[in-house]
Design a protein that fits this description.
The protein is built from twelve helices and eight strands. The chain is an alpha/beta fold. The protein has an eight-stranded mixed sheet.
Length: about 290
């Protein structure tokens, strides 16, 4: 099983919000141009303002405050499999420890299900999508933010070079540890959602991370250790790889004055008859 959706690996990675917060703060501080990503995601959907919303895999709730500020009349529920994450959640009340593969709500409960940057951690994505479809109302909408498979190519290149440098004669390793979003990215996520929803629309947001110093780069990489380390060959030690990575990043920053990492994040909206597809369905019904 790929470490990114191995239940034990995911449980360790998200026992608390420490590692996730490191990555979120890195993106907030070093992304150019600056953007409020949760607000950008939420604005891809046409809100009425009174929706019942399920934040699936909510983590520590980075979408909650944004919803409360801009759409204060929505009814918010959160589900996450990590009690440690939910302890940090700003909402109180409707927070439930649960699994995306067995959502603890009745059929047709929600107008919107948000599954942001979490579906790639689910062991059985198809089962999770079946469950999401089940708890959505007939005209409900899924909002699923994720990344592109092609995001952060500079980091992948450094990983690849580091592994080559640490390879022993006769055993050359060049496949870098894969990012978590491989299982559900903007590219393959569109195809996966189309199995269960009539219409899927994709919104991309290209940007860059600009690092003026070495430490935030290394902190970001270390926050992914439990997800990437299991992918390494036995002969390559994570700490040795990080030493090589550090040397490479220092050279880049010394030469250019900064390290620029290109990234593409985005969001997929999916529905059978609601949201962005509702006008089309209405016209289709009228024509028939």
């Amino acid at each position: 099983m790929f470490p990114g959706n191995d239940p034990n690996t995911v449980k360790r990675q998200y026992a608390s919000d420490v590692y996730l917060r490191t990555r979120q703060e890195t993106h907030e501080q070093y992304t150019v141009p600056k953007i409020d990503f949760p607000l950008w995601v939420l604005r891809r959907y046409r809100w009425h303002g009174d929706e019942r919303v399920l934040d699936l895999g909510s983590g520590a709730g980075i979408y909650y405050n944004c919803l409360c500020e801009h759409w204060p009349d929505v009814t918010y529920y959160a589900v996450d499999q990590s009690p440690g994450m939910l302890k940090q959640h700003p909402a109180r009340g409707e927070l439930t420890v649960g699994d995306a593969q067995d959502i603890p709500f009745p059929d047709g409960t929600f107008d919107v299900v948000m599954a942001n940057h979490m579906l790639y951690h689910v062991a059985d994505i198809d089962q999770a999508l079946i469950e999401i479809r089940r708890v959505l109302k007939p005209n409900g909408v899924l909002i699923a933010a994720t990344n592109s498979i092609q995001s952060m190519p500079q980091l992948h290149a450094l990983f690849r070079r580091g592994m080559l440098l640490l390879s022993t004669p006769g055993k050359v390793y060049s496949q870098p540890p894969l990012p978590t979003q491989t299982n559900f990215a903007l590219e393959n996520g569109t195809r996966l959602l189309s199995r269960y929803f009539y219409a899927v629309v994709r919104h991309d947001l290209p940007s860059t991370l600009v690092f003026p110093s070495i430490e935030p780069v290394m902190a970001y990489l270390e926050s992914t250790r439990s997800l990437r380390e299991p992918q390494l060959p036995e002969s390559i030690d994570w700490d040795d790889l990080m030493l090589v990575m550090r040397e490479q990043v220092i050279r880049v920053i010394d030469h250019f004055g900064e390290m620029v990492v290109e990234k593409v994040s985005g969001v997929l909206l999916a529905s059978t008859s609601g949201g962005f597809i509702s006008d089309y369905i209405d016209k289709l019904d009228h024509t028939h």
